[in-house]
Specification:
Elements lengths: L1 H5 L3 E5 L3 H14 E6 L5 H29 L4 H10 L5 H11 L9 H14 L1
Parallel strand pairs: 1-2
Helix pairs in contact: 3-5, 3-6, 4-5
Length: about 120
């Protein structure tokens, strides 16, 4: 998170005392592109778990689609380009798709943490 913070790209999911949030909000703006006050303590954590669940599910779909393209003798590069141009186009496809095709699996979020977040997200509801 250090590089995104330096680039002002963080998204803050805050909860607790809204008066404190209002006081620190200008400082959050210096490090992030958005800040949200979500209510009572714990709401920020729950929102982050939901976000991570969506991201993990999307990563699974991207990887499965690329594997299916390869198994079907289709170009994975073309699939990534097609996905980027359509309604499926998003930052995750743009960032991770080409790396998966190149079999470059640099981790920015370890699998064990993704699995933990998925378990906690499932427990939410």
């Amino acid at each position: 998170s250090k590089v995104p913070a330096l680039q002002g790209q963080l998204i803050f999911l805050s909860a607790g005392d809204e008066k404190v949030f209002d006081i620190v909000s200008p400082h959050l703006k210096a490090m992030g592109k958005a800040e949200y006050f979500l209510g009572e303590i714990g709401a920020g954590t729950r929102m982050k778990l939901v976000v991570n669940m969506v991201m993990g599910s999307m990563m699974t779909c991207i990887a499965e689609g690329l594997a299916l393209a390869e198994a079907s003798a289709l170009s994975q590069d073309q699939l990534v380009e097609i996905l980027k141009l359509g309604v499926c186009g998003n930052g995750l496809v743009t960032l991770k798709g080409p790396n998966i095709v190149k079999r470059s699996y640099d981790t920015h979020f370890p699998l064990k943490h993704a699995q933990k977040d998925m378990r906690f997200a499932l427990a939410l509801g």
